[in-house]
């Protein structure tokens, strides 16, 4: 994988060969991929790859002028004022935040990583949380212009699961009640709207108001991954939080 992403010409351009771009997706997922492999193989190449991704996120993708982590930027992190260049995917960014929080914890709650993760989480929550209907919205434009994707104001299952994990990690890291409140907000909304009370599993696709857009439980995008990962990670984090606190009978998790 490293050879593919570092050798010019192996991968065909995602958009066109006349415009050099950087994508958030490969940058963020390599943090998680490398950390998972590192649990079995303690190779310094893996930690170096995580360091490179963290550096790229801060150098190229985090844009304080918009309080946003952008999905697509120029080769040197330039803001590209097009539909693709302005896109914010709040759920994707929130997922990135908990990947960094997890790595921060691995390194003894590294302060710089922690601050980066919390900044991304705070920015992305502000863009993503629907103040009118609740839930994490699909896409936003960093200049508040119309978003191209037709599902832009829908609520998909996976951004909610990422937010449930990220807010628990943030609360574990900081003890800040703000993150516990955010966790309760997204968890309560998610469990009120996505589970199918009659047949089980979760719906994947809701309208903005939380009503079911289509009832498929699985398709080429929605597979058996995000929901059990959230439940397992959530269970572990809750136990860690409760074991580290006194008076936990008053804390709602």
In short:
GO terms for molecular function: isomerase activity. This protein has 253 residues and is mainly alpha-helical. The protein is 50% helix and 8% strand.
Please explain how this structure is put together:
Keywords: Isomerase. The strands form four sheets. The protein has a three-stranded antiparallel beta sheet. It starts with a helix and ends in a 10-residue tail after the last helix. The longest helix has 18 residues. The chain has one domain: Alpha/alpha barrel (Glycosyltransferase). The chain has 253 residues and is mostly helical. The C terminus is likely disordered.
Primary descriptors:
disordered C terminus, about 250 residues, 9 strands, mainly alpha, AGE/CE, three-stranded antiparallel beta sheet, Glycosyltransferase, globular, isomerase activity, about 10% strand, 6hp_glycosidase-like_sf, isomerase, 8 helices
Radius of gyration: 18 Å
CATH architectural category = Alpha/alpha barrel
Would you give the CATH topology?
A: Glycosyltransferase
Strand order of the largest sheet: 7-8-9
Outline the biggest β-sheet.
3 strands, antiparallel
Q: Quickly count the helices.
A: 8
Span between N and C termini? 38 Å
Strand content: 5-15%
Summed over residues and divided by their number, the pLDDT gives a mean of 93
Q: Which CATH class is shown?
A: Mainly Alpha
The class by helix and strand makeup works out as mainly alpha
Total strands: the figure is: 9
Tally the structural domains: 1
How much helicity do the residues have? 40-55%
Q: How are helices and strands ordered from N to C? A: HEHHEEEEHHEEHHEEH
Uncertain stretches of 5 or more adjacent residues: 246-253
Shape: globular
GO biological process, one term: carbohydrate metabolic process
Keywords: Isomerase
Protein name: N-acylglucosamine 2-epimerase
Family: Belongs to the N-acylglucosamine 2-epimerase family.
